[in-house]
């Protein structure tokens, strides 16, 4: 019964190695409970099949010397950032990418928050792939404590990748965490200006868990993006994203809030308002369904901080107890978990409206789905005084097929919750 219930909440459609791994862990827990390039975009082939041995590459001294030389280019910026506790700051990332650019490197940050330096070299490489010429390219992808170095080689239209991951240890010494080599089974330059590639290599750890090779997906924005779009994304969309909420996954507006889940909204915005984690947590025993009654002022303050909704409507959309002025609340439990690897939002255009609102067009970028647009949505924001704002509406612009957001899991309905957590004699 428990496993049947678990399967019910997984969306049908996409099945990948990472999902297999997650389901492997999930099943174990359940058992325990029971017991293009150039000025014009080139026509880059959607999928290229390449026959090359997949392998984890041994450490190459020349590669490591290369990595040391790259790290030395911006070491002073890195040291200053460590001293100022600003290693992951946007300003630090910009400075590092700019410094690498000055030294002729192709570079970008791992979160695609800074315009790629040397994008024209990437375009030339893509052109060589299309024309089946020989070419080589190195791309540096900056991460907080180090960087990934992608060495790309193309010949006869195929692409092979050697990816090294270099990270500073606690003593400030650069270490080669791992190096892998694989052919690009998928190689794609998208309309939105992303270079996307995927390949597989043998990994002992992954094989033990999934009986298959490890798969690596990479999505790098090549074309520049309006900095205002990035700022709007960082302020309004990225902090919430697509994890355990449906604000940007369903149609709603201030006249009709539709299927908007206000309990997920409470979970997401409580830490922003109160500066601490939500105290209403699931029971340590996964077989027990925890319930709480939250004082109305606490619950309503969280919701109305970013949504223009009257009390009567909010109480109709939730469970409200008039006798003691509280909201009934059930934290997400085992049967409401979501697949951990999800798309991330990217605002690609905006319009400032006459009524003071801002309309954002947002693409869901999904590296593990090998796409720069898993789906799109139009979200309207109302800026208020200071840094305050309200979400006004959301409209899905792509297919309504639930497989598009298969990784998302709705909360249990009252009936489903009772079926799982309450014995028959107590119902």
Q: Summed up, what is this model?
A:
The protein has about 425 residues and is α+β, with helices and mostly antiparallel strands.
Q: Would you spell out the secondary-structure blueprint of this structure?
A:
Layout: H1 2-8, H2 17-34, H3 61-73, H4 75-83, H5 90-102, E1 106-109, H6 119-130, E2 135-143, E3 146-155, E4 158-168, E5 174-183, E6 186-189, E7 194-201, H7 204-210, E8 214-221, H8 227-237, E9 252-253, H9 262-274, E10 292-295, H10 296-304, H11 311-316, E11 320-321, E12 326-329, E13 344-352, E14 358-365, E15 376-383, E16 389-396, H12 414-421
Helix pairs in contact: 9-10
Distance separating the two termini:
18 Å
Computed CA radius of gyration, to the nearest angstrom = 24 Å
* Helix-strand sequence: HHHHHEHEEEEEEHEHEHEHHEEEEEEH
pLDDT averaged over residues: 85
Contiguous helical run count: 12
**Total number of β-strand segments?**
16
Count of separate structural domains:
2
Helix/strand-derived category reads alpha+beta
Q: Assembly type of the shown chains?
A: single chain
Extract low-pLDDT stretches: 1-58
General shape: elongated
Strand content: 25-35%
Into which percent range does the helicity of residues fall? 25-40%
- Major pleated sheet: 5 strands, mixed
Side by side, the strands of the main sheet go 1-2-3-4-5
């Amino acid at each position: 019964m428990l496993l049947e219930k678990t399967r019910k909440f997984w969306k049908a459609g996409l099945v990948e190695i990472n999902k297999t791994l997650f389901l492997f862990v999930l099943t174990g827990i359940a058992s325990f409970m029971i017991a293009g390039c150039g000025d014009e975009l080139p026509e880059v082939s959607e999928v290229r099949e390449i026959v090359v041995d997949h392998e984890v590459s041994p450490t190459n001294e020349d590669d490591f010397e290369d990595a040391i030389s790259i790290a030395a280019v911006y070491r002073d910026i890195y040291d200053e950032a460590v001293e100022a506790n600003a290693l992951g700051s946007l300003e630090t990332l910009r400075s590092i990418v700019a410094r690498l650019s000055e030294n002729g490197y192709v570079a970008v940050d791992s979160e695609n928050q800074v315009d790629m330096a040397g994008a024209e070299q990437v375009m030339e490489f893509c052109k060589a792939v299309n024309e089946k010429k020989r070419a080589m390219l190195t791309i540096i992808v900056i991460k907080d404590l180090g960087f990934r170095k992608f060495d790309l080689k193309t010949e006869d239209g195929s692409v092979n990748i050697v990816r090294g991951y270099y990270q500073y240890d606690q003593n400030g010494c650069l270490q080669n965490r791992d190096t892998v080599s694989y052919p690009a089974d998928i190689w794609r330059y998208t309309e939105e200006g992303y270079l996307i590639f995927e390949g597989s290599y043998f990994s002992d750890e992954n094989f033990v868990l999934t009986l298959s090779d490890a798969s690596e997906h990479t999505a790098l924005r090549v074309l520049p993006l309006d900095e205002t779009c990035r700022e709007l994304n960082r302020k309004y969309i990225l902090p919430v994203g697509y994890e355990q909420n449906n604000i940007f996954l369903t149609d709603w507006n201030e006249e009709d809030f539709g299927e908007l889940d206000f309990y997920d909204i409470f979970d997401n915005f409580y830490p922003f308002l109160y500066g601490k984690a939500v105290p209403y947590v699931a029971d340590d025993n996964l077989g027990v369904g925890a319930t709480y009654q939250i004082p109305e002022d606490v619950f309503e303050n969280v919701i109305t901080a970013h949504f223009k909704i009257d009390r009567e409507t909010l109480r109709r959309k939730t469970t409200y107890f008039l006798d003691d002025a509280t909201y009934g609340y059930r934290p997400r439990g085992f049967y409401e978990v979501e697949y951990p690897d999800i798309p991330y939002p990217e605002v690609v255009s905006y319009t400032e409206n006459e009524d003071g609102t801002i309309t954002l067009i947002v693409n869901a970028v999904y590296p593990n789905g090998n796409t720069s647009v898993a789906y799109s949505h139009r979200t309207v924001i109302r800026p208020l005084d200071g840094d305050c704002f309200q979400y006004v509406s959301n409209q899905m612009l792509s297919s309504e097929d639930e497989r598009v957001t298969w990784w998302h899991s709705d909360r249990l309905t009252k009936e489903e919750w009772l079926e799982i957590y309450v014995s028959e004699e107590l119902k």
